[in-house]
Amino acid sequence: MAALANAPVLIQPEPGWIYNKSWDLSRIILSAGLVPMPFLIAWAAQRTGWISARQAIDVINILVAGLVGGPHLFSTVTVTFLDRSFRRSHPLYTWLSLIIPVVVIYLGIYQYTLLITFFFSWASLHVLHQIIYLSDCYRAKNARPDPLWSRLVDYGVILTGLYPIGMYKLAQRKFRVGGIVLPYPDWLQQLHLPEIAGVAFTLLMAAWVAKTIVESRQGRLSGPKTILIGITSAVSFCLPMGSNLDILFQGYNTWHSFQYLFLMWLINRLRYQRGEIDNPFVRSLAGRESMLPYYFCFLGATGVTVVITFIVRALTSLSADQSYFVVILSTLLMHYYFDHFLFTRTEYVL
User: Fold this and answer.
1) Direct distance between the N- and C-terminal alpha carbons of the chain, in angstroms, rounded to an integer
2) Local structure of residue 48 (DSSP, 8 states)
3) Residue 206: other Cβ atoms inside 10 A
4) Each residue of 285-324: pLDDT tens digit?
5) Residue 331: burial class (beta carbons within 10 Å; 0-12, 13-18, 19+)
6) I need a labelling partner for 19 at 20 to 30 A (CA). Which of 27, 53, 68, 350 fits?
7) Is 17 helix (H, G, I), strand (E, B) or coil?
8) In the chain, where are the structural domains located?
9) In the predicted model, is pLDDT for residue 5 greater than 70?
10) pTM as predicted
11) Is the dihedral angle over the CA atoms 245, 247, 253, 259 positive or is it negative?
12) Which residues pair with 180 in a beta bridge?
């Protein structure tokens, strides 16, 4: 009886949802309400005269990275480096990831602008790839499968919403990330990429709306997937309209990291129930009903990274921004690398 009393409650996903309606809405979909929070905090701090605009950016970057950004990227190791079966099944893919920190350190010292440009480009795709993965999870949970053309329309809407206004701001050289203005070569100006992105998004959105209406009438509409894509498209399109793009995109990062933390916790709980976790430490975290030990573990790892950043700043001639990004991107880009593989595995949530 005591053993039964201490056994973790089994997770029983609700049909059509990744976990269940209340969990999905609060952790995955409507958590989009977190997007404006960094901007509102920075705006309030500046309005009260507490800190300057530059200081507000630094504070927001530290808060987002410390509370959700760092923990979310470190949680990736639970299904990669810390999983013997993953390392055994994908040895080359696993060990090639160790090249990434070497490249980051080199670029951070000698080609910092190139590093930041590459990071921001990959970051935007990574955030959108997570939404695609979530839509695929809902698709896998739906009783009636979507045809290929329907999936392609969904993917197109997700991937293009960020770029009409985003590319325009980039072409105007108004994107400032990591202390630099992201470059936009003169030869790109002649390609009219913002206009092309705008036309592509408009056509895809029209097709998506028409498709959604047809699916609803035929009784095969996935409500959670549709809401997620609709909210994502609205956030992606409207976000670059603001002037302080550094802070605004930290809002997107906050939502993305929040989603990911809960998604990976759920995946590990499901893996635990299926007996798929072969690492004792990860098994001990996933076997708990509360997510807090899991979160605090990776919050601690984030703290270690912060200490390393201060050490790099103190012992080298790198600027504060360079020190931060050289350390953070060494692990963050590995996280991106592994997720582009993991985000093809909807079986994790089935």
Assistant:
1) 30
2) T
3) 12
4) 999 889 999 999 999 999 999 899 989 989 998 888 888 8
5) buried
6) 68
7) coil
8) 35-349
9) no
10) 0.91
11) negative
12) 177
